[in-house]
Amino acid sequence: KSINFQPYIFEPVFVKQKQMEHKEVDDEFSDITLRLFDLSDIDDFMEWATDDQVSRFCSWETYTSKEAATNHIVDVVIPHPWYRAICLKDRAIGAISVTPNEGNDICRAELGYVLGSKYWGKGIVSRAVQMVASTVFIEWPHLERLEALVDVNNPGSQRVLEKAGFQREGVLRKYFLQKGKSRDAVIFSLLSTDPKVNSFM
Fold first, then answer.
1. Which intervals hold domain N-acetyltransferase (predicted)?
2. Per-residue model confidence as pLDDT tens for the chain (201 residues)
3. How far apart are CA 133 and CA 197, in angstroms?
4. For the residues of 138-161, what is the DSSP string, one character each?
5. Is pTM, for the whole model, over 0.90?
6. Can you list the domains of the chain with their CATH numbers?
7. What kind and span of H or E run contains 174?
């Protein structure tokens, strides 16, 4: 679902902050990369897409067949304008996407992410979000706002965004339907002009 303060006096502070942020990711899981999905990732995809814990707050239902998962990769993931595998040693342990808007809403895009449950709580997604924020505003110069909607009952995902420098803006009541129920959502945003963005680059 994006930086370098100009005043020299702040530079040591942000160097130290960057070091602290990197330490928040366990050393064992610090080698995180983002890349395009490929059909060869299907087995890794199935490992977390078949997990009810993972799909609980997702718009999609837990996958039960490799054929359905393969069709999803072919029909949705690969054609998507910005959809990447979150990789550890080149294995797809999750996914992250930025979905653009059109027309008068072209200045903003929505961030989404998912991660295998055995990798939760290790700082991986926060790092992946920072990696996205460090590039997407450059790749899409028209983009000014990256936003994310999180279920109010999903505090883990809210912490991910807060650690990545997103600003919590408020709660949107009964904002969307998920698995047949209307849900309240917390909305977060990161702007291309936010100082935090330069610290990711």
1. 32-184
2. 332 222 222 222 232 333 444 445 566 667 899 999 999 999 999 999 999 999 998 888 999 999 999 999 999 999 999 999 999 999 999 999 999 999 999 999 999 999 999 999 999 999 999 999 999 999 999 999 999 999 999 999 999 999 999 999 999 999 989 888 999 999 999 999 998 887 776
3. 7
4. HH-TT--EEEEEEETT-HHHHHHH
5. no
6. 32-199 (3.40.630.30)
7. strand 167-178
Residue with tokens 């949107």: 172
Per residue, the 3-state secondary structure of 79-142, as one string, reads CCCCEEEEEECCEEEEEEEEEECCHHHCCEEEEEEEECHHHCCCCHHHHHHHHHHHHHHHHCCC
For the CA atoms of 50, 53, 57, 58, the dihedral, rounded to the nearest 10 degrees, stands at: -10
Residue type, 25: V
Give the separation between CA 82 and CA 85, rounded to whole angstroms. Answer: 10
